[in-house]
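Researcher: For the annotation table, I need structure tokens for LVIVD repeat protein. Please keep the output clean. Sequence:
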Amino acid sequence: MKLKKAQTLIELLIVIFLLAILLPAIMYGFMSSREGKAQQEQRIRASALLRQSEEAVRTVREKGWNDFAVNGTYHSEIVNSNWSLLPDPIVRNGFTETIVISDTYRDDNGNIVALGGVRDPSTKKVNLTLSWSLPKETSITSRLYIVRLDNITKTYTNHLDFDSGQNNGTTIADTVGTEIIGDAQIQLGAGGGGGDWCDPSKSITEVDLPKSGVANAISAIEGAVFAGTGENAAGVSFAKVGLTINEDPPTALINATFDGYKTNSVFGESNFAYLTTDTSHSQVVILDLTQFNDPPTNSKYQEVGTLDIGTGSVRGQSIYVVNNMAYLTSSNSKLFIFDITDRANPILKNSGGLSLDGVGQKILVAGDYAYIATNSTTYQMEIVNISNPTSPNITGYLNLNSTQSGTDIYINTTNENVTRVYLVTTPQSGKNNFYIINVENKASPTISGLSGYDTGGMTPKGVTVVTGNRAIIVGTGGTNQYQVLNIENETAPLVSCGGLQYATGVHGVSSVLQTNGFAYSYIITGDADAELKIILGGSGGQYSASGDYTSENYDTGFDTAFNRFIANVIMGGQTTLKMQVAVAPSINNSCTGINYTFVGPDLNNPSGSYFTPTNNVISGIVPYKTINPNFVNPGQCFAYKLFFTSDDSTQTPIFYDLILNYSP
């Protein structure tokens, strides 16, 4: 009995012991459950209030950036039925709302960083906190990055925008054909003076060539025009006209003549002239312009040599001479190359000649290539590699897919790396008869952009390209026999900007850029009393080979993030245009006297890199960083710098306009 009571007592003690252990835990869990539910309800309410605070921040920002973007600690409040941010935190219904607005910083790549970087004046960091103390101390947070949306643009396009910049070998010119008042463009400068190619006068000087023959050939160098007037027996074969080069207009005087042949074309140098003829075994006659066969009168030049292709009944068609080598096309559709180091004893280098697809109506040479306009209706233009005179070969050709034939051609012969050829052809209904040809790939010439033009019924006889990105086409028939084209933009339809009428027709054209910067075109017409006419050129003569332009200071009046820009430009085949930008802080809130650091897009080499065009557009992002010694973006002051080059003195790249985007 006693044992049973003892066991009962032990069991009771065990129960009491277990209850002592478990009961507090059970009670704590019960109490915690009640408190956790209350805490969860508080968190739900706080989350809703936090979302409301975020909406209040966005609403205030949308009302205006300047009122919003002020660093400080705030709370949200409805004032006059609108959300506002008022100073200091606030406690409402047991919740404390704290809104902190502060600066945002970005690295060189524009990424937001917590440490270092450059302040972005167009982005604000907003930290929002909702806290409460019951049933226990707790808080929730949110972070927003608020960006200014209403960016500002600055446009540069007219004289007011450009004229106050600094020109170094560049100039500000009017942009024609737009509706913008005072529209302007920046381009390479030109020396000397001149008229306007697009507003030509009939002539400033005229010369009546000897006898009454029909003038049919022309070539010119500085100080002299070489004319062939032997299309029929009534004229002399050749006349050299001397020109004064320091007078405007120039004085013209016939120095002397030569006769005895029917002249098909003429090429002139300082001391020699070369006439292609119809005479067998004398397809080219060489004249020494320092020797005469009628001394002391000295009115007739001395023949000193001939080029014989070795075949009779074949006429010489076109000739070009450079570096004591003569390149001759003939009526039997061949190209012959002669070494004329000894003019009296020329040496034919490619016996038998190189067969062309047609008669070479005009040949010009630059570097290792000859460019030939042929009368073929299959290949109107051919390119011949002449690097080995004994074995020239056709490298490339152009097929216009028409029944037209080539009549004349122009290239810049002073540049060995020719990229553009200008070709005129016979007319065909519904077809252009002037083309700009891209020959960067000599094996595959292509028509550049939309660069074709219909001369409107005129049959082209000659073409030349002159200063100011203008082409001159001459011929017979139609309305204007002297037509000037604006060829600045190869990707746009070409249009005539000027012209002249010559009822008797124009049979040839040449142009010269004098060392004093004056430019002239020389034409041979059917006017029996004044075959040779000299027309004053435009754009002030020859373009500079290089130049740069620095814009005026643009002062925003406050620190701002300069974001990006886009510019419209035009570049010819042998020109370049590149650009750098600069941003700097003000000095005493002024941009006067700022020493800019100009940079390009490569952050590893900012001062040595440049923004360059793609499809006649330069665009880019203004670097967002500090670059020694004085590039700081964001900043208050902005400028840009342009760099121009041209390997063709008749062409210039053109900068039309710039749109700059920035965020105050």
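Researcher: And a one-line annotation?
Model: The chain is about 10% helix and 45% strand.
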